[in-house]
Amino acid sequence: MRNIKLSGREATVVRSIGFAEAMMGAEIQDSTRMEEGDVTDTLNSLMSAGYVESNPFFEQVQIAEMPVTAFEINPAYVHELKQALYRR
To answer: I need a labelling partner for 50 at 20 to 30 A (CA). Which of 5, 34, 41, 58 fits?
Structure first.
């Protein structure tokens, strides 16, 4: 089992997405109250680590695409991400 460490912004975005179902980028931005560029950068870092997946699939999401893209937690990392949030 990996010991995942999340930054404050990453933890905020992961909490916002939750572990049940996908969430649109605009909803993530509204719930986190972060700037659009910050949300996009954070989502891209989580996606590059494999913790978050987008639908439709993107290697990296652009600012213009982020609000209309659905994001969800990668099921392979749910347990480790829950532990990382619990340790915060």
So the answer is: 34
0.90 exceeded by pTM:
yes
pLDDT tens track for 37-49 = 999 999 999 999 9
Intra-chain end-to-end CA distance of the chain, in Å: 18
Number of domains in the chain: 1
Residue 3 lies in a domain: no
Segment 48-70, tens digit of pLDDT: 999 999 999 999 999 999 999 99
